[in-house]
Amino acid sequence: MRPQYSYPVRIEQDEEARYQVRFADLPDALTDGADPAEALSEAADCLSVAIASRIIDGDEIPKPSPVAPGHQLVSPDPTIALKAALYMQLRQRDMTVADLADRLGVADWHQAARLIDPRRSSKLTSLAAALGALGCRIAISVESPAGPVPAADETRSFERPEQLETEYTKLGGQAPKSLSDATLRAVQAHGEGATAQDVYDYLSREFGMTVKSNQLGIALQRHRRTGQLENRDQRWYSLAKADTPARSGSARIKRD
What is the pTM of this model? Predict the structure, then answer.
């Protein structure tokens, strides 16, 4: 059974030998990678951001089209997929977050709103309970890779992955999962804001990553669209999460 929020992508190599990823159903979701494995990894992150931005903006999340020849399926982060499912259920039923709170038996509608907000963390069990309150059932599928599983060092986007493991083991931290993750952490490390060059230098110095300006720009703009970063006077700033969502409990999920 095909997951509800898995989308087909086409991967093509450009004139600079990078692998470009395009979603037929999400024309604004663009990313790339040094090789097909990295491109697919970045595509999953890009898809999560594209879905999250539609939830934040109150827009429709398009249904995935059939998988055409030469295309591959990409799935978003599981939490984002469940939040999207919950968001679309409310939208289709013309329900408010207050209505959802009533179904869940909670007095504070903010608790229900946080389940939809992709900027807020939510337990999978809480999302499952919310979907269950709407009569939905979650199905989990596991697929084996069609070919041999690539070695870990073949799927990393870093020039010196051994540096990451050594330095982050010493610090007790974790290496970034993707360019998007590393970019966000680079901006967060600059409390007074960071220029694009600051971010570029941080990625190179701390993570051993070499990226092109267009890749960095795409990553920064993704985080801006999802409300994690903002740009003021040519500097990027990390935004603190708000304690409560902006929408009121009586506001309905926007429908087209």
Answer: 0.62
